Amino acid sequence: MPRTRSESAPARPTPVAPPPPPRYAFPAPLWRTVERLRPPGLGRTRHWRSPLRGPWLTSVFGAVLLVSLPIVIVTGLLDYLAYGPQFHQAFPFGVGWLHLPYFDWPTRPSWLFRLTQGLHVGLGLVLIPVVLAKLWSVVPRLFAWPPARSLAQVLERTSLIAVVGGILFEIATGVLNIQYDYVFGFDFYTAHYFGAWVFLGGIVVHVALKFPHLVAGLRSRSLRTELRTPLAETQPEPAHPEDPDSLVALDPAPPTISRRGLLAVVGGGALLVGLLTAGQTIGGPLRRAAILLPRGRSYGDGPNDFQINRTSLAAGITDELVGPTWRLNLTGGALPVTFDLNALHAMPQHTAELPLACVEGWSSTQVWSGVRLRDLAAMAGVPAPTSAVVRSVEPAGAFNVATLTRGQVLDPDSLLATEVNGTPLSRDHGAPCRVIAPAVPGVHCTKWVGSIEFRTAP
Amino acid sequence: MIAGVITGWRSFYGEHPAHLLAVLACLALAGYAALGVLMNPVWPRMLLWFAAAIVAHDLVLFPLYAATDRLLNRVRPGPAVNYLRLPLLGVGVSFALFFPGIIRQGAVTYHAATGLTQEPFLARWLLLCAAMFGASLLAYALRSGVRRLLQT
User: Fold this and answer.
1) Chain A window 298-327: which residues touch B at a Cβ cutoff of 8 Å?
2) Any idea what the Cα angle at residue B23 is, between residues A202 and A44, rounded to 5°?
3) Closest to B103 in 3D by CA, of B115, B114, B87, B119
């Protein structure tokens, strides 16, 4: 087959070798019978008319996903580790062997979690148009007939359920979750985490089996030539009419868009989604471009006007809990120590610019001030803790307690913050004090802190 | 000898033995992952959503957008159909991704989390749609204007 098509117009149809006759594996009579009993409409019929579908186009979409989807998968699995599975605070519990090797989540760079969750959610959303285009490009295979000519094909098509179902399930649950729409009625973490591994199982075998096709598909045409081919010269990809498995239409309609035009449409779709998404984690003026996402909303321009993920009202925070009678209890040393807010203010203060980053794909960088956690540990009589359990005065809620690692407690920028941007924290942001620490997931930056237990045993 | 065994295997199974190993390994992994949700009492619901995701895309969304595209091509044959097709795609993708805010689904959770309501999203989305159709119309007008100028 020629590697590039002649650039001179009109392009001549390329002669294509007839495919080898289909081989039927055991039990051949069964597969032959199935093939004969073709229901109307199925198979490579003349109803499929796209002049652009073909192995090259599918390979281009496949190559884009092959490079980018691993980033989404790995950042997702890293976010699980960031939640601290060693403290049983990563969801779902008990994932067996299905996790990356455990390690203590580092505190540097301070934007590490902002990066991993931002990439996971942001890139995941941006790739949706590419996933849809890839599925469109291969959809005739879904209606192919016969569905299989061997046991090998039966197994391979079964594995596609994990691929297609897996990616669509991950997209659906993820897209709903970042918009607080829990219409699915099951635990998001459990579904999204195990769904990812089902997809991973499917996609690994899919890539292993299709990689040679992907390489051959990419080599069948020159991308550079395609990018120079206007609509008037756009021809279908070459295929033999007798090949029952070909993606190329038997009777293609006249093209209404060039191949480069279609790539631009898909790329443009990804760009549109990117524009509507990036602001919720990049912030600054771009935040306002995220017009359709919860995290693009503006709270005003005051020092406390940035994103909230749980209001004090919803958390059940009352005046009795955080008013003048509020106390901070530090335990783990020989004797428990108690401070009121004035005592906290009288301690050495430290200021740090740190991102507050949520696993739902948004973040917001602010300037926080308060007492270093390691100073509090020393005051509690535990200068070298192995971990710290921070409890909120919030009566109920999945995240009213969080365990921090030794590194997260001892980092010089880890704070029990009482101020943000030079003013006291608002109650929605955790007044009288909250944890803020570098690269710690937002839900573990506990608000309305009531006690900290510094531990020395693992 | 080995080559003969592999040929025999191929005529039975249809592919190289490595194919079977790869597919079984990955199906086992997917199965092991699926086992993980069995501890969760609502696993049938998850399974339902998994299957529904496939059906919704392959048997609802795809036929729907393919039929819409055929209709558009009939209304306006030729490349000019893209002036309708592209903004419609933009409308479809933006709705498919951000519909919870637009139709105010999950309003209670949204309010508890953010202290805000989903009130602005519908208007914003409609403005975005208007902008996409408007840009397309402008491009069409400019293009046909230029063409007319070139012809005279």
Assistant:
1) 299, 307-311, 313-314
2) 75
3) B119
Determine the average pLDDT of the residues in A334-358.
97
Whole-angstrom distance, CA of residue B43 vs CA of residue B36: 10
- Nearest CA-CA partner of A389 in A84, A103, A18: A84
pTM of the prediction?
A: 0.95
SS3 label, residue A338: strand
Give residue for tokens 């969760």.
B40
- Residue B151's H or E segment, with its range, is helix B119-151
Question: In this structure, how many other beta carbons lie within 10 angstroms of the beta carbon of residue A97?
Answer: 9
> Which A residues in the span 253-282 are in contact with B, Cβ-Cβ below 8 Å?
253, 256-257, 261, 265, 268-269, 272-273, 276
Question: Alpha helix (H) ranges present in A294-340?
Answer: 312-315, 319-322
CB-based contact, B124 to chain A, within 8 Å: yes
> Which of A94, A159, A179 has its CB closest to that of B23?
A159
Tokens 């995290």 correspond to A295
The mean per-residue pLDDT over the stretch B72-92 comes to: 94
How confident is the model over A140-177, as pLDDT tens digits? 999 999 999 999 999 999 999 999 999 999 999 999 99
Find the mean pLDDT for residues A74-78. 97
Can you give the pLDDT at residue A5?
43
The DSSP secondary structure of A396-430, one letter per residue, reads: S-TTSEEEEEHHHHHSTT-EEEEEETTEEPPGGGT
Q: Name the residue among A139, A194, A273 with its Cβ closest to that of B34.
A: A194
Instruction: Indicate the pairing of strand A387-392 with strand A401-405.
Output: antiparallel
Q: Which residues in chain A touch residue B82, judged by CB atoms under 8 angstroms apart?
A: 256-257, 261
Give the tens place of pLDDT for each residue, A404-433. Answer: 999 999 999 999 999 999 999 999 999 999
List, for residues B85-117, the tens digit of each pLDDT value.
999 999 999 999 999 999 999 999 999 999 999
- The reply to whether residue A179 touches residue B106, judged by beta carbons under 8 angstroms, is yes
Question: What is the layout of strands, in order, in the sheet containing A449-455?
Answer: A337-339, A328-331, A449-455, A387-392, A401-405
User: Strand, helix or coil at A362?
Assistant: strand
In this predicted structure, the answer to whether residue A2 has a pLDDT above a threshold of 60 is: no
C-alpha pair distances (Å), B136 with each of A245, B26, B130, B140, B141: 37, 46, 10, 6, 9
Residue B101 in tokens:
């805010």
C-beta atoms of B50 and A195 within 8 A = yes
A212 touches chain B (CB under 8 A): no
CB contact under 8 A, A191 and B62: no
